[in-house]
Design goal:
Blueprint (H helix, E strand, L loop, with lengths): L5 H20 L2 E5 L2 E6 L4 H10 L1 H18 L7 H21 L6 H28 L3 H29 L9
Length: 176
């Protein structure tokens, strides 16, 4: 397992806190029955950012810890570990896709593809599937809203990642 520097751990902690705030507080939650069926917001961005900036392990850690801590701070429904796996994969998949292309300069289209693949797998496929398994919410009930939300989120996430990387706001970026 990769060892993280103190600086990277501090940035990851900041991204976990940002993930919790954006996911649990600054998002629109739509209940279906007594269960949160749809959440519209930008809570996945810090997890994706951690994966792209610090590698897939960091993205997975930020996503998983952000989901578990966020649940205990602001729960809605029962705790289901499947959603923690989905949150971790949100940070892991885009990073792995970018590593596959092995480009130091990541153009906007490549970021959109990497983030889009990750969001397709986690937000559009896995999360509705887990809602169906855990709460019997039909897969296709939440699908249209999720597709629309990700069609908006993916370009925004890609533009933000590219802007942050270009300005070196987080740190001196070195691809991993």
């Amino acid at each position: 397992m990769k060892r993280f520097s103190t600086r990277e751990l501090v940035y990851m902690s900041f991204l976990i806190a940002l993930n919790i705030v954006l996911t649990r507080v600054a998002s629109i939650r739509i209940s279906i029955g007594a269960v949160e069926g749809i959440r519209i917001g930008c809570g996945g961005f810090p997890t994706i950012m951690a994966g792209i900036m610090f590698g897939p392990a960091a993205g997975g850690i930020v996503g998983a810890i952000g989901d578990v801590v966020g649940y205990y701070i602001n729960p809605m429904g029962a705790y289901i570990p499947l959603f923690t796996i989905s949150a971790a994969l949100t940070g892991i998949i885009p990073s792995l896709v970018l590593q596959f292309f092995k480009r130091s300069n990541q153009p906007l289209w490549l970021l959109m593809i990497a983030i889009g693949i990750g969001q397709l797998i986690t937000s559009i496929i896995l999360t509705p599937y887990f809602l169906e398994i855990a709460f019997k919410i039909p897969f296709f009930v939440t699908l249209p809203a999720r597709i629309i939300a990700q069609a908006i989120n993916v370009p925004i996430y890609a533009i933000l990642v590219q802007a942050i990387k270009k300005t070196n706001i987080l740190l001196d970026y070195s691809p991993r």
